[in-house]
Amino acid sequence: MSTFPADDGTELAYHVLGDGPPLICLPGGPMQASAYLGDLGGLATHRRLHLLDLRGTGHSAVPEDPASYRCDRLVDDVEALRRHLGLARVDLLAHSGGANLAVLYAARHPERVGRLALITPSVFAVGVAVTADMRRAAARRRHAEPWFPEAYAALEAVLSGRATDDAWRAMAPFAYGRWDERARAHQAAEDGQRNAEAAALYGGAGAFDPAATRAALARFARPVLVLAGEADLNSPAPALAEFAALFPAAEFVVQEGAAHLPWLDDAARFVAVTAAFLR
User: Fold this and answer.
1) What is the dihedral angle through the alpha carbons of 54, 47, 236, 121, rounded to the nearest 10 degrees?
2) Quick one: CATH architecture of 2-134+194-278?
3) Are 206 and 212 in contact (CB under 8 A)?
4) DSSP states of 151-186
5) pLDDT digits (tens, 9 = 90+) for 118-165
6) Pairing of strands 90-95, 48-53
């Protein structure tokens, strides 16, 4: 583990894995410790991963000002890491909620980004609509699974505004392409690794300006990968196709059999696609 100071003095941590050109990796959650990313299915054999623990998560310090958890303010932390690493330009990989931060960084510092890989990204920052029917369609791909009836009933409860902790737990299998022992262990390891206070503030008022971000991304000419999971109901493929279309030079890939964590569902396929893009 290594550390560096944010502009406000908060001590931030990042974890380095692998060899090759540096790749800054932004976790989702939002505000989940980066440990759940692991080595991204073996991507660390192609790139040197710098896995950032966002402020208040993992090994990073809790800031004095909780308002600094807001996504647009976290852009300064990514820029501080770039300066700390001494890089004129960085390649960025972001998963899920971390993609909001990545696109805000690209919009504010386009000259600092080499390649941008968005893995099953959240779309809040750009205002793309994810409909209930998109989520249902992705979920129904799993109809033959033994856990499906309970999980689908929980999904309907969430979509109808009757979300409970039990419903969210029952939906956990949808995040994985295979709900096996490895997936269960991964899910269990994530418990307690998310900063709930920070997550509640991450997308607070003023964090996102979708129209301005869309306009900036329309001018962002660097290569972009948008990778969707075929069965991902969190970030459904139709919404991500619309997201990819916002960029002038985006490659849109749907990974078959994958859900929200594609490096766990088929590591070989994920690494082949992502490493080829990052080259």
Assistant:
1) 30
2) 3-Layer(aba) Sandwich (3.40)
3) no
4) HHHHHHHHHTT---HHHHHHTGGGGSSS-SHHHHHH
5) 999 999 999 999 999 999 999 999 999 999 999 999 999 999 999 899
6) unpaired
Q: And the tokens for 5?
A: 């100071």
The amino acid present at 258, given as its one-letter code, is A
Q: Could you give the angle at the alpha carbon of 214 between the alpha carbons of 27 and 88, nearest 5°?
A: 55
Domain spans of the chain, in order of start: 2-134+194-278
**Structure token digits, residue 100:** 């909001």
- The residue length of the chain stands at 279
Which segments of the chain does DSSP mark as H helices, in order?
71-85, 98-108, 132-140, 148-159, 165-170, 181-190, 196-202, 210-217, 237-244, 262-265, 267-278
Query: So what's the pLDDT on residue 22?
Result: 98
Whose tokens are 């009757």? That residue is 162
